[in-house]
Design goal:
With about 750 residues, this protein is of the alpha/beta class. The chain folds into 3 domains: about 5-255, Rossmann fold, CATH 3.40.50; about 350-725, no CATH class; about 725-755. A hairpin with a 4-residue loop joins strand 4 (about 80-85) and strand 5. Helix 14 (about 415-440) crosses helix 24 (about 625-645), helix 23 (about 595-620) packs antiparallel against helix 24 and helix 27 (about 665-675) packs across helix 28. The relative contact order is 0.08. GO terms for molecular function: N-acetylneuraminate 9-O-acetyltransferase activity. Belongs to the PC-esterase family. CASD1 subfamily. Its EC number is 2.3.1.45.
Length: about 750
């Protein structure tokens, strides 16, 4: 790690991803929208001063504010631009040579009576080369002139942002006869003079003129697409304008996916308290470990001289072992959270933008599918959606989703639609699994509910504290948590209908179906009544959990996108368990699920349905329209997959242990990717090893998977301690947890007040 300023990297280095996406070295560029650009530049005055190349940059810059602007007006004159709605003034001043006239204009801004521009972008040289036919005398005069201007620019740099744009190379073969004297050799000489002279007298880094040299790198890749060999193509000019916007606006707007030029966020009060807690846990664990080691040495087995019998060491009391396990878990968790913070908050490691190509998505998919098939084993049981099979299902879906996020495949609509089905399939399993448990076991006790809620939410709550993010930011966990509570409420409220009760009287089955119909009605009503939904989740403290950027719209959108699939999972579980109870399906090893004829018909319908959905999803043209249909039709492909996977006896009897291993830690993988595999809260890619993208992915993936596995173990260990089976002890723990969250809400309110 060089420790350099990311602004310097943004202005001086980078590379193209594909043909049009510019990737600065070590950091991420944000793509500014018109509204964001206006908010950043409100009440600002920006000046571009120079030749025709600077004029091009001026037009690209103002198009970020108003895309309707046309490039018209006097090419060899001053061009004003004003956005009255945001009080933004952007002027282009025609000074094609670095001479006395340019000096006089710049000097006027340094005088006290004149309002200084907030941003000054200057640069010129090609006219000097052209007018003086590339003579050495012209270069000498250029050096003299820029030497006289340098102190004025440095003086302005104390209160304004001043950028000197170095000259781009030309494509000499395309230059007209009147421009043939403008060679890359001459341009390099002029650039060298500008770099050497500017800032030569300034020692204060804050008062330096910023050298905009990245344009040279961009031009080297794109100048051959120029219309005249001198001026850059439009896409390159737009990239330069976007770089300028990032340099100035990132520190003001603080976009998540714009890490360039952003300072490290200060630690919040809650983060400081979390740091102290984990530090004390590590110290406490080390002290207890040392005490135990000393006790072990003292109590080593030794022969009793009187009886001749071997004495056994004293056994530790359960309280000590529980405390040690607690401190050990928090000690490991503290070290892991430190890694999280360093990766995605401390500006220590580099971050890069995503760039989608078909190969970056489909090649890893093929690779993991081959690995998954290679690790095929027999299942312990052959029931529909048995434990090994559901773990395998979660595992391969999670790996596909991870590759989808890493490759930035959300920009490719057919892939996006299929990934939406995978997310829906997770929720389908939520409905299926929890309904099956409550229906068969009839266990509605607090212990079961608290165990599930703890396992789902523990990691996210810790990350909300350490990474200073709202609960809704990790949207999938709130989604699964709310749906679990809905399933629980549906089945637990009077009358409680479970399998044991329903077996005695078939009418109870109709009672359960009535409950499910009521649930479906409520879902339908809330999905089409955004106002009612927002009122429910806008009450404090629910609003604290489900608000994102000051409103609950994002939560409503996420909930609405897969609103029916949990119900479908519950209904499927009910039908399957009813058929199983009446022995209408065959689940023996190697046996088809139904009779051969029925199995073949269902298998054919399932394959056709699966392919039909894929064809429809691949032909999607509009994301909004497809999202509207998705909640109703996603179940088609999910059910088709379940039937294809379970109707043939052989297919139902085997599973991939490779995928199943990942399935057991799928929740941790999904959450951990936000900060230690991806970067900038999933907007970019974490770079631990710069310059070697494949090796970087291997190393960061290995650490990421190990951390997810370790957190899964920690969560399981803590769940046994924090959520005991004894009801009275559990009640005390719940009171402690309620106190903890009350304190957290209080500190959070204090933080919000101090920020405002």
């Amino acid at each position: 790690f060089k420790g350099g300023d990311t602004c310097e990297y943004l202005l001086s280095s980078g590379r193209f991803l594909g043909e049009k996406v510019w990737q600065p070295h070590s950091c991420m560029m944000h793509k500014y929208k018109n509204s964001e650009a206006k908010n950043c530049l409100i009440d600002k005055h920006v000046v571009f001063i120079g030749d025709s190349r600077i004029r091009q940059l001026f037009y690209s810059f103002i198009k970020l504010i108003n895309p309707q602007v046309k490039e018209e007006g006097n090419k060899h004159g001053n061009i004003p631009f004003e956005d009255k709605s945001a009080s933004i003034k952007v002027d282009f001043l025609w000074y094609p040579e670095v001479n006395g006239s340019m000096r006089q204009r710049i000097k006027s801004w340094t005088e006290g009576s004149v309002t200084k521009p907030h941003i000054i972008v200057a640069g010129a040289a090609t006219w000097s080369i052209k007018i003086h036919n590339g003579s050495n005398e012209a270069l000498t005069q250029y050096k003299i002139n820029i030497t006289s201007i340098a102190p004025l620019l440095e003086k302005l740099a104390k209160s304004s942002d001043v950028y000197w744009v170095l000259q781009d190379p030309v494509y000499e073969d395309m230059l007209s006869e009147s421009r043939k004297m403008i060679t890359n050799e001459k341009i390099d000489a002029y650039n060298e003079a500008a770099v050497r002279i500017l800032n030569s007298s300034s020692r204060n880094s804050k008062a330096k003129v910023k050298m905009f040299s990245v344009s040279k790198l961009i031009a080297q890749e794109t100048i051959m697409k120029s219309a005249d060999g001198l001026h850059l193509p439009e896409s390159s000019r737009d990239t330069n304008a976007m770089i300028l916007m990032n340099v100035y606006c990132n520190k003001i707007m603080k976009p998540i996916d714009g890490s360039c030029c952003q300072p490290q966020p200060p630690l919040t009060l809650i983060q400081k308290l979390a740091f102290c807690f984990f530090t004390l846990s590590i110290i406490g664990y080390l002290i207890i470990n040392l005490i135990h080691r000393n006790n072990f040495r003292k109590n080593k087995s030794c022969t009793d001289l009187e009886s001749g019998e071997e004495k056994k060491p004293a056994i530790s009391t359960p309280n000590v072992s529980t405390l040690e396990m607690l401190l050990h878990s928090f000690c490991k968790l503290g070290l892991i959270m430190t890694y999280f913070y360093l990766c995605d908050r401390a500006n220590l490691f580099m971050k890069e933008n995503k760039f989608y190509t078909h190969s970056s998505f489909f090649i890893p998919i093929v690779y993991i599918l081959v690995l998954g098939v290679f690790y095929t084993e027999n299942t312990k049981e052959t029931k529909v959606l048995n434990r090994e099979q559901t773990d395998e299902w979660k595992g391969w879906m999670q790996l596909v989703i991870l590759i989808y996020h890493m490759s930035g495949a959300s920009t490719f609509l057919p892939v996006y639609m299929h990934i939406r089905v995978l997310v829906a399939a997770y929720l389908f399993q939520t409905g299926y699994g929890h309904f099956s448990y409550f229906w068969m076991k009839g266990d509605f006790g607090a212990y079961r509910v608290c165990q599930v809620l703890f396992r789902l939410n523990f990691l996210v709550v810790v990350l909300c504290i350490v990474m200073d993010r709202p609960y809704q930011f990790y949207y999938f966990v709130p989604l699964v948590t709310v749906w679990f509570m809905i399933i629980y409420a549906t089945l637990a409220i009077w009358p409680q209908i479970v399998q044991k009760k329903a077996n005695g009287n078939c009418l109870w089955h109709f009672g359960l179906l009535l409950k499910l119909i009521c649930l479906l009605t409520c879902i339908y009503f809330l999905s089409y009544s955004q106002g009612a939904f927002e009122k429910i989740f806008s009450f404090w403290p629910l609003s604290k959990c489900f608000e994102l950027n000051g409103n609950v719209y994002e939560w409503w959108f996420r909930w609405k996108l897969d609103r029916y699939v949990v119900f479908h999972g519950m209904l499927f579980a009910f039908i399957y368990l009813a058929l199983q109870k009446r022995q209408m399906i065959s689940e023996g090893k190697g046996d088809p699920l139904f009779s051969n004829r029925v199995s073949n018909v269902l298998l054919f319908i399932s394959i056709v349905s699966f392919l039909t959905y894929s064809i429809w999803a691949s032909s999607c043209k509009n994301k909004t329209e497809c999202n509207e249909l998705h909640p109703s039709v996603s179940v088609v492909q999910i059910l088709a997959f379940v039937l294809i996977r379970n109707i043939p006896g052989y297919v139902r009897s085997v599973y991939s242990s490779f995928f199943a291993w990942f399935g057991k830690i799928s929740l941790e993988l999904f959450i951990c990717q936000y900060h230690i595999w991806l970067a900038a809260d999933t907007k970019g890619i974490l770079v631990l090893i710069p310059g070697y993208p494949m090796f970087n992915v291997l190393v960061s993936t290995f650490i990421f998977v190990c951390v997810a596995h370790e957190i899964s173990q920690i969560t399981n260990d803590l769940a046994q301690i924090v959520v005991p089976k004894d009801n009275s002890t559990l009640l005390k723990r719940l009171l402690c947890i309620a106190g903890f969250f009350s304190g957290l809400l209080l500190f959070s309110a204090m933080q919000d007040q101090s920020r405002h």
